[in-house]
Amino acid sequence: MLAPGIGLIAVFILVPMALTVALAFTKWSSQTPFSTATFIGLDNFAEIFGSSSVGRDFKGALINTALYALLSIALILPLSILFGMLIHQAQLRGANILRTILFATYMVPMIAVALVFSKLYSPSEGPFNQMLGWVGIGPQPWLSSPDTALVSVVLLNVWQQVGYFTILIIAGLTQIPPSLYDAARIDGARGLNLFGFITLPLLRRTLLFSAVIALINAVQVFEPVALITQGGPVGSTNVMTYYIRRVGIERAQGGLGSAMSVTLLLALVVTVTAVFALARREPQR
Amino acid sequence: MSARDITIAPGAASPAWKALLYLLMIGIAVASAFPLAWMVLSSLKTPAEAMQTPPVWIPATPSLDAYSKVAELINVGRSFANSALIAGVTTFGILVTSLMAGYAFSKYRFRGRDALFAITIATMFLPPIVTLIPLYRLVGSLGLNASLVGVILPNLANAFGIFLMRQFIAGVPDELLEAARLDGASEMRILFQIVAPAVAPALAALALFAFVYHWNSYLWPLTVLQGNSDNYPIVISLSRLLSYNRSAVNTNLVMAGATLAVLPPLILFVFLQRFFVRTITASGMTGQ
């Protein structure tokens, strides 16, 4: 019963995972068999954290990815709480239609999202700058300036993903017994008190889970960068998935790329562990 | 926002507050739908309209020219067939492997079960890029580079499916399985004739998740197909329109291509969304 599923996962995920770790300490071209890899100790790690151009680009990608993830989570979580409460608790007609529209964006292939937003962002022919003009805000450079490109990619990611997280929040909200709100209301709690003392604390686990998923998703951003910005302008959208693939597959520097993958994985494990530790330390209300 | 009248007891909200919430709701719906609406509208524009500054929102004479031009530039039929094959076969594989492993994890007792399950679940949180480089070589050494089999094979099982099936199969009563065993039914028969129908809604949801995910998937097919455009799924064929993306004249072309790629997953979703929502809610995917 277990053999097909676990076998496939072992061969195509666990074995490559172990290989990534092993190859990180070797010089190896990904165009040649694994047997051609030669052990070079920590040289790859020295290079990606060193001052060469690879080191510069890698550290840039690490910082960009962290920024991208942080911004995505900081926008997605509050929005999905707001949307979730609006759909689940506000008792509005048509709330289900809103839920459908929101979730539908999650079904759209990222490549299409990237293509459409590259047009929406277009400085002269795009509707975004036109709409900003209506409210008296000057045109923005969006994807074409190093100052705004990463944020622009974050925004299209938020647009695509917020519906999925809204569904997660709604699932969390359905777990909160209505009697809690009734009891609190009898005690005189209103408005923000209800939100702060009941909704938010009881959504803690859902929010924690959502933050972790949003982080893992954010690390995977690829299509808008590969297709529209190619990591630019001036490296401002150079992110991990894009850069690791570029080094490890396109330039065939498999050992170097594997060292980057291992670093990314360690960074993720440390971050997730820290988030969980922090969440546990904070007293339960 | 204030949660003053976000209330479980109906009738407490003031009309003004309620009106504000409706406005907010409509605003969110419009913002959410706008990019897709703009995509479809732009695909119907003439090249001249696509170039205008400030942009024209609604084409004066909607035309399907862009779609026929796309069909000249990329082999739409072939790309769709590749996408359907990749997503279809992968989905079928995921259903079978997830049912089997989920059944074993929830109904069998064996040494090391929980540890094995924990390792399986851990792979769910692994970003694909972390294993991409060796996987690319591994599939290459099997002689599967540039082939559809190479795209499909590594994805025939996944932790999410196994997790989901374990959650739902746990709810199937053991007495039902025991009764079938007493009647001499084989384990495979029990799985596919008793367990599978009992978890049909969750299977439907998993099928949709898997199909849409693998229809949309970009990184792996791009890597393994290595420029063999005969085997490109539609999402990768689309990138061939990119050389046209530089000039605004061709916006209608690019948007027509994007519309084509979006339609199948979106149509599937509209018809089957109730399974998605119910399954996410019921699967414990919320950390509860």
TrEMBL record, chain B:
Record key words, sorted: Cell inner membrane, Cell membrane, Membrane, Sugar transport, Transmembrane, Transmembrane helix, Transport
Matches recorded under InterPro entries: MetI-like, MetI-like_sf
Annotated transmembrane regions: 20-41, 80-103, 115-136, 148-169, 190-215, 253-272
Name of one Pfam family that matches: BPD_transp_1
Record has Ion transport as a keyword: no
Domain called ABC transmembrane type-1: residue spans: 80-272
Keyword Cell cycle appears in the UniProt entry: no
Membrane topology reported for the UniProt record: Multi-pass membrane protein
Location of this chain's protein in the cell: Cell inner membrane; Cell membrane
Principal place of residence: membrane
Top-level taxon of the source organism: Bacteria
Family: Belongs to the binding-protein-dependent transport system permease family.
Subunit annotation: The complex is composed of two ATP-binding proteins (UgpC), two transmembrane proteins (UgpA and UgpE) and a solute-binding protein (UgpB).
PANTHER family in UniProt: ABC TRANSPORTER PERMEASE PROTEIN MG189-RELATED-RELATED (PTHR43744), SN-GLYCEROL-3-PHOSPHATE TRANSPORT SYSTEM PERMEASE PROTEIN UGPE (PTHR43744:SF8)
Functional note: Part of the ABC transporter complex UgpBAEC involved in sn-glycerol-3-phosphate (G3P) import. Probably responsible for the translocation of the substrate across the membrane.
Protein name, entry field: sn-glycerol-3-phosphate transport system permease protein UgpE
Lineage of the species this protein comes from: Bacteria, Pseudomonadati, Pseudomonadota, Alphaproteobacteria, Hyphomicrobiales
